[in-house]
């Protein structure tokens, strides 16, 4: 079945196309005034959700996460670093078009972005989410917390956002690790706000093939020392 490229603007803006469709659409939309405008508008809308106060229905987050967890994954990832001895059993997640779009809107609209006012760091986050090559990846883990990573190779930035994250005792911190063929590279250290939300930006240390989060001593560690609490689905 032939797909009308004019119908792919929303999925492209939310990074929900497969490689062939992305290539076809990227060859088409720069010369199409309608599609070019729609891509910009969809990205701006998704980014604006990050700073507009929204009070979603209480059942919505759980329903979206349930759909993500049971949807077939498009591109299974091969393990890139041996973290199994420290890793909790994490339920597999994956997404098709609708689930990717739902996860992206979840990260920018529902999981820790209900802000009464925008700060400079929030503006930076909006800018990151509006970049042309933004990738948003929900991380799987135990418990009620919802954690996602957004990154852009073009801007060289990464953001970790979360809601419902447990507080840490003493001077312990959460560490976001970028996984690639060379192993694990520390990316961002963070602690949640009093309500368990996180909006933390940092520099992207390379080209990731996956992400993981551990708890580490203050100042971080050169390599993961704690068990993997959240990770991209294998």
Key features of this structure:
single chain, 234 residues, alpha+beta, 2 domains, 6 helices
Compute the separation of the termini in Å: 30 Å
Indicate the percent of residues in helices.
25-40%
- Overall spatial form: globular
Annotation, overall tally of beta strands: 8
Order of helices and strands: HHHHHHEEEEEEEE
The neighbouring-strand order within the major sheet is 5-4-7-8-1-2-3-6
How would you characterize the largest beta sheet? Answer: 8 strands, antiparallel
Which consecutive residue ranges, at least 5 long each, have pLDDT under 50?
73-103, 105-120
Radius of gyration: 18 Å
Tally of distinct domains: 2
Classification by helices and strands: alpha+beta
Name the beta content range. 15-25%
Number of helices: 6
Mean pLDDT: 74
Overview of this structure, please?
With 234 residues, this protein is of the alpha+beta class. The protein folds into 2 domains: 1-48, no CATH class; 56-231, no CATH class. Helix content is 28%, strand content 22%. It is built from 6 helices and 8 strands. The chain has helices at residues 9-13, 19-28, 33-48, 60-70, 97-109, 120-129, and strands spanning 135-141, 146-152, 157-163, 173-180, 183-190, 198-203, 210-216, 230-231. Strands 5-4-7-8-1-2-3-6 form an 8-stranded antiparallel β-sheet. A hairpin with a 4-residue loop joins β2 and β3. α3 packs antiparallel against α6 (120-129) and α4 runs antiparallel to α5 (97-109). The two termini are 30 Å apart. Mean pLDDT is 74; it is low at 73-103 and 105-120.
